[in-house]
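User: I'm new to structure prediction. If I give you an amino acid sequence, what do you actually give back? Let's try with this one:
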Amino acid sequence: MDFNVKSSAALIFDDFFQNADTRTENWLLMSSPLPQTVIIAAYIFFVTSLGPRLMENRKGFDLKGLLIAYNFGVVALSLYMCYEFVMSGWGTGYSFQCDLVDYSNSPQAMRMAATCWLYYFSKFIEMLDTVFFVLRKKTNQVTFLHVYHHSIMPFTWWFGVRFAPGGLGTFHALLNCVVHVIMYSYYGLTAMGPNYQKYLWWKKYLTTIQLIQFVMVTSHISQYFFLNDCPYQFPIFIYIIALYGLIFLFLFLNFWYHAYTKGKRLPKVLQAQTWTHHTNGVMQANGVMNGNGRHEKYE
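Assistant: Good question. You get back a string of structure tokens that encode the predicted 3D arrangement of the chain. For your 299 residues, that looks like this:
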């Protein structure tokens, strides 16, 4: 009985992977989900257990120069990915409705697949956000949502690159890159110290930018459920993106209501949940909101 169950599971697994995109199978980390699973597990272990223990009796590191370089490096990478997403589809032929994945070996299709892989790989780079929190002994910012998001994003995007690198399922990635340009610019300027506070007058609009992003992601992906004929190759990804978009939209609307409509301080549990950026789709929990609505990461 056990043998039959194992055999059936193996057959389902093999049958599922027969539909994978052969173009990406030999790219870095793409041959199997196992390598990324090991990396993600090591990340979780370090930021939740090993790292805090190693830093327990040590003074937090001063990483100002590294943080400035890192944040503006992510800004540059995000700008590049924005350009590539636009040039490989979103500005060169996509209809913003039922855009299917192009599995051909055309230069345009391969450019989109490569951009999707780069976006996936960038999620590992962004794990350094949490590592820096631990090394600076800012463990109050290492929330469950933060770690969960940084872990689940690369894991789910592995399947996106392996099965559907392109089409309407990548719109949220383009938006996420645009938002990252803004967010990491803010983080970079913040890391430069109080002398640059005068350049951060626009930080009060960050939550609004996040809300607009989630509304756009949810609205765009929801079209799929109302189109008469949209033979998107892997509908499961549509459901995942829609779920992510709705969850984060409601989290930010909840914050907006408490912080701006009621004008009350947020309870700690919401402080830990409402400052996220992403996305796939979704967004990263890259900092927390304090009771005055300020965005804290390096302040």
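You can read the tokens as a compact description of the fold. Here is one thing that stands out. The first strand starts at residue 277 and ends at 278.
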